[in-house]
Amino acid sequence: MRKSKKERQERLQLTIQENPFVTDEELAQEFNVSVQTIRLDRMELSIPELRERIKYVAEKNMQDEVRSLPIEEVIGDIIDIELDSSAISLFDVKKEHVFTRNGIARGHHLFAQANSLAVAVINDEMALTGKAEIKFTQPVKEGSRVIAKAKVTGSEKGWTTVVVSSFVGSDLVFRGEFTMFRAPSSEKGEKHEARN
Amino acid sequence: MRKSKKERQERLQLTIQENPFVTDEELAQEFNVSVQTIRLDRMELSIPELRERIKYVAEKNMQDEVRSLPIEEVIGDIIDIELDSSAISLFDVKKEHVFTRNGIARGHHLFAQANSLAVAVINDEMALTGKAEIKFTQPVKEGSRVIAKAKVTGSEKGWTTVVVSSFVGSDLVFRGEFTMFRAPSSEKGEKHEARN
DNA sequence: CTGATTTTTAGTACCTAGTCCTAATATCGG
DNA sequence: CCGATATTAGGACTAGGTACTAAAAATCAG
Questions:
Q1: Whole-angstrom Cα distance, residue A55 to residue A61?
Q2: How do residues A138-155 score in pLDDT, each as one tens digit?
Q3: What is the CA radius of gyration of chain B?
Q4: B48 touches strand C (CB under 7 A)
Q5: Whole-number average pLDDT of chain A
Q6: Which of residues 30-69 of A touch strand D (CB under 7 A)?
Q7: What is the architecture, at CATH level 2, of domain A77-182?
Q8: Which keywords does this chain's UniProt record carry (chains A, B) (predicted)?
């Protein structure tokens, strides 16, 4: 016994969603109706034809492959800096910085802003990050403006500690304690000795 | 002047590789030859027709979709993953990832690779980084291939700890312990949805 | 039950992006 | 110039459709 049009269309939608590679012919057999009926159903539900569906899936895949994280020189705009003391930078969270699924900023962008600010605040361009202890205290949504404040809290024999606190409005969203190594300009990266 | 058959075929291969969505018609115009010539070329190079190419790309995508995260969200290429257990990704350090001064990779790229691997390994709709304790044990130079290995070390209601160790060859260059907040999808089930 | 309406089916012409095949030219090396 | 290779042209056929017309079948209202 063939079910009602409504039920068929619901199941049709699910079937195609699950397997976009199915042809009208196959669907007609599955639902025991004519191919034309399947086509009318697709039209009513505005489900595109097989080739369009496949193309859509493929295109989505291609976009993914073009992904090449374009991280700029400095993440965020430095709006204030006092070398070896403190710095403030600003970072606007845009579409490309968030998870498509929930619109929340990916952690590494907040980290990148903080980390590059920690590098910048050090009065020696050869600063490398040695350790970091970080905390994401609140999710940051698309469209937010993140203000990172870096403060140099300690310094000894080549190592400097920088604490970066990032805010959206008055809310703390990120906090990180970075131990920065003031690297010598030697080419060798293997042995790192404190020199200045 | 039209180039030789050999050169045309080489360029044809590259063109299709770059953009599998191109038709024979378009290729014929681009190379200033007839459609038939393009088809002979494709046959000689055993390049399938447009629809087969698109289908192949789409199918690849469907396989990937089983993962908890779209592949685009991951920095580096995931070469192995066992959800809620372990994952391995690969990241090639290029010019754009290093400090121009010394050719050493900026920390946030290593962090990004590790962090996104930690997100990917979690088998939930949503995974956010809560805390992280990280260590950069050795500088990474341009041209290095960084292999990040993530291991889920603990899990309790809503929180999962993931340890990521990154290597260049046999040298540990980065280590991070991430505390990830996880949120299961509203609709429980093994079936993944194909968005149409 | 009848008549109207909805739903389903059938069939036609046309489309794209091809395949496979034959046959006629064009171009090049020796 | 000849012969081989390369290119082009054309016809017949394919899948998986669209767009349209028309008719048959099922369903609903009174």
A1: 10
A2: 999 999 999 999 999 998
A3: 22
A4: yes
A5: 82
A6: 36, 39, 42-43, 48-51
A7: Roll (3.10)
A8: DNA-binding, Fatty acid biosynthesis, Fatty acid metabolism, Lipid biosynthesis, Lipid metabolism, Repressor, Transcription, Transcription regulation
